[in-house]
From TrEMBL:
Amino acids binding Zn(2+) 2: 163, 198, 261
Entry keywords, A to Z: Hydrolase, Metal-binding, Protease, Signal, Zinc
Domain Peptidase M20 dimerisation: 284-440
InterPro entries referenced in this protein's UniProt entry, alphabetically: ArgE/DapE_CS, Bact_exopeptidase_dim_dom, Pept_M20_carboxypep, Pept_M20A, Peptidase_M20, Peptidase_M20_dimer
Record carries keyword NAD: no
Xref: SUPFAM superfamilies: Bacterial exopeptidase dimerisation domain (SSF55031), Zn-dependent exopeptidases (SSF53187)
Residues engaged in binding Zn(2+) 1: 198, 233, 545
Gene Ontology terms describing biological process: proteolysis involved in protein catabolic process
Gene Ontology MF terms: metal ion binding; metallocarboxypeptidase activity
Family the entry assigns: Belongs to the peptidase M20A family.
Phylogenetic lineage: Eukaryota, Fungi, Dikarya, Basidiomycota, Agaricomycotina
Protein name, entry field: Peptidase M20 dimerisation domain-containing protein
Catalytic-site annotation from UniProt: 165, 232
Keyword Metal-binding set for record: yes
Amino acid sequence: MTWLFSSLLLTGGLVSVLALTPDSFTAFKAQAGFHTNAALGLSGLSSHGVVGSDCPQTPALHPSKHCELNDRLNRLYDSERFKLHTYETLGDAIRIRTEIYDDIGPVGGDDRWKVFDEFHEFLEDRFEILYSELSVTKVDEYGLVIHWQGSDDSLPPILLAAHQDVVPVDVDTVDEWKERPFSGHYDGTWIWGRGSCDDKGPLIALMTVMEELLEAGFTPRRTIVLASGFDEEIGGKMGALQISQYLQNEYGQDAFALVVDEGSGFLNMESEGDNVIIALPGTAEKGRTDIRVEVSTPGGHSSFPPQHTSIGILSSAVVAIESTKHTPKLLRDGTPFATYQCIAEHVPNVPDSFRRLVEKAKEDDEALCQLKQTLLEELYPVQNSALLGTTQAVTLIGGGIKVNALPESASAIVSNRIGQHSSVIEVREHFTKILRPVAADFNLTLEAFGVEVTTGSSGHLSIGTAFNNAFEPSPKTPTDSSNPYRIFSGTIRAVLEGSKIHPSKDVVVSPMLVLVNTDTRHYWNLTKHIFRYSHFSQEDVHGFHTVNESVRAEAVIEHIRFLTTLILNWDEATV
Ligand SMILES: *[C@@H]1O[C@H](CO)[C@@H](O)[C@H](O)[C@H]1NC(C)=O
Ligand SMILES: *[C@@H]1O[C@H](CO)[C@@H](O)[C@H](O)[C@H]1NC(C)=O
Ligand SMILES: *[C@@H]1O[C@H](CO)[C@@H](O)[C@H](O)[C@H]1NC(C)=O
Ligand SMILES: [Zn+2]
């Protein structure tokens, strides 16, 4: 039973885990008994590379023309001096508190932006060669675009991205941190502080790689562009969106060979001393829209109230919302189905019944339906529901100003994450449909997204978009025999197969649907080939967006190795 339970959890849970922020995989591991699961054998890996595979694995891709340079840089990265210098650079970056706030004013119109000037001075100072030899453009003051001209203009450039801003530290939690939240302290194993994983580790890794390549005399054939936004944590409209528009003007639409930004990572699955790694680059992300529901009724003294106040009516609306869930869908052309196929084909010790069901579901509608039921009812319902459909969570509520005054209005905000098959409009229609009876019950005028739907005389129920947040689910990065996917996944395999800190018996790469959004939501016009991936495992990072954020120092070096190989592989590629 334990074995079956762990395997089922693994099957269902694995895929969900990296889609969330990486600290959730820590919770997942604990839940699944990840490390102690001795039953995870390695028998399932024999189908690698077989013809007709539903999840073909690219062989490890190593630079050939740039082999000597890659080796030389890897030796440099091994040196204690290089490591300590890198840790110090990341520590310094963390110590500059580039916190971003939901209510921050426009750039230049709010003193809280000033710290970004300091951050830019620091980068310029630390990455001297990069700033002096490459062309650096500032977009909307703090957006960074760094252009490294290649010698062959017929090759589309690559875009590598990482953001500068970090989520604020809640002052009430400072005491719970092992190290001060902005200490940047290296304790011999970990580098501590807000931003260490998200996203200053990857940003410093990227700049370090470009600096080292310059210093080594590398001259790219293919143009390399670095993009760095500064408001990712509040939606990227000042940073990434402006950067995207700048890039579309300068390079053209669809001009990039690929875009790589933060995202999911890889998962270590230990078993009897062996390690199998599942890397899950995000090849798509869900959509998102925040919806505000507001009830307004006449005010008055609480001593002679009507039967229901705005707050009471809003409560009925919230109950209606929570009792009507969206229906998840398992579609053959969706990213989650591709992930389940990879798991069924390559993950060790997935139960045979599950393997067979996934195989059958490729053609057989009944099996597809049964698979969906198994995923949603038996395996990991919460995570699989999130992967397969639109989710909704009522996350904010407000109303009332005084105990003896009837509240004239009350409102709630619902965070909706839109399933890959759905759309913003479908979510809006869902809200209008489920709240129409509430408006009728309380005799309210229903207004939905600027349109009056029904009229009533006791007040208003209005539904609208909150925070101006409405993003469709992303397009899917091509994966089947697509060259950029092949190069990207071959690079992951090459770096992991040579990894000193993540020794593995095998590496599997699978496409993945990311549940949250990244700056790439603004980059769709730049390329079809977007990869949301940070080269970290679940053991390399802690405390995303919360207390004790820290990154394993050696993992930053691994990230540097990954980006170096990625750049060199792309420089040799002809696509
Ligand atoms: C932060 O780390 C310290 C030391 O490991 C630990 O005692 C504390 O519980 C952690 N805080 C949280 C909220 O995880
Ligand atoms: C709504 O209120 C109006 C005016 O108070 C009243 O005439 C009407 O019957 C009410 N309708 C319902 C469905 O309660
Ligand atoms: C992408 O291109 C379309 C068509 O040119 C344009 O309408 C849209 O605003 C662009 N999106 C971004 C984020 O630049
Ligand atoms: Zn981030």
